[in-house]
Amino acid sequence: MRLSILDQAPISNGKTANEALAASIKLAQTGDDLGYTRYWIAEHHDLPGLACPAPDLILGMIGAQTSRIRIGAGAVLLPHYKPFNVAERYNMLATLFPNRIDLGIGRAPGGSAEASIALSGDFLKQVHQFSDSIDEVLRFLHNSFPKNHMYSKIKPSPVPTYSPEPWLLGTSEKSAILAAEKGLPYVYGHFMSDADGPSIVKQYTKKHSETIVTVSVICAETTDKANELALSSQLWSVQRAKGEGNGRIPSDEEAKSYSFSDEEKETIRKMERKMIIGDPKEVKQQLEQLQLLYQVDEFMLVTITHNYEARAKSYELIANEILADK
């Protein structure tokens, strides 16, 4: 089993965006040292609790401070951008950090409707053109426009020795079908979807095999400690759904003292069905169970806790349990 990291650059209550991004760089270094396959950082806009609207900018810093781990976006929200610009930026990263760059592609807005309008004007129009935009990105990366095409004379410079590896991210059967049609490796967001994930991934793997499943995981030395850590991210989700709080990850103390309603408790129970929470052996066991369900070789783990050190420790404990013998 291969393990990777998906980082959403969460900003904890009492912390600044600067501290959150510094913690993200440190997390990538931790993953590099521990044997994780990839470190990807997500793109979000106008969300006060998430610090990264521009993955390519921080990836430049992360690449310079790591040596082995593949790094990339999870994902570039393509409807906001021109394909040529995306190809230029990730070719630049691939030139700086040869054979280490992944280009995850997604179609979500990543923020409010107002932010989408500010970024790309008619976002829905761009979503409708998503399939064609993917084709353009791939042709720019592979320099494969027909000779009579208007773009055949331009290249997204610099042109690296090893092109960025493109992936398509999604949470639905539609995205899996699109990835298969494009011949792209696929990442399924188990932690974001209530759909029948194993069935969706099976549809994709009928034609292609390279698949990653992204899972929400919180690990600690004991199960009780892991559940305590998980409560802050669960409260954060509850508050966001209700439009309450300041958008940042509540502290463990705030989460413990919060009076959850019966409805909110049920919401948390539903969340926990999509999460893996426990000590290292429990986490390993549950990942192995998911592996049997999904029939994949790689999981990408997203971990959100108020305490950045506890988040890094979660990844360390899991690596020591699963990756130590590799």
TrEMBL record:
A cellular-component GO term for this protein: cytosol
One GO MF term attached to the UniProt entry: oxidoreductase activity, acting on paired donors, with incorporation or reduction of molecular oxygen
Domain Luciferase-like positions: 1-291
Highest rank taxon of the organism: Bacteria
Family: To bacterial alkanal monooxygenase alpha and beta chains.
Protein known as: Luciferase family oxidoreductase, group 1
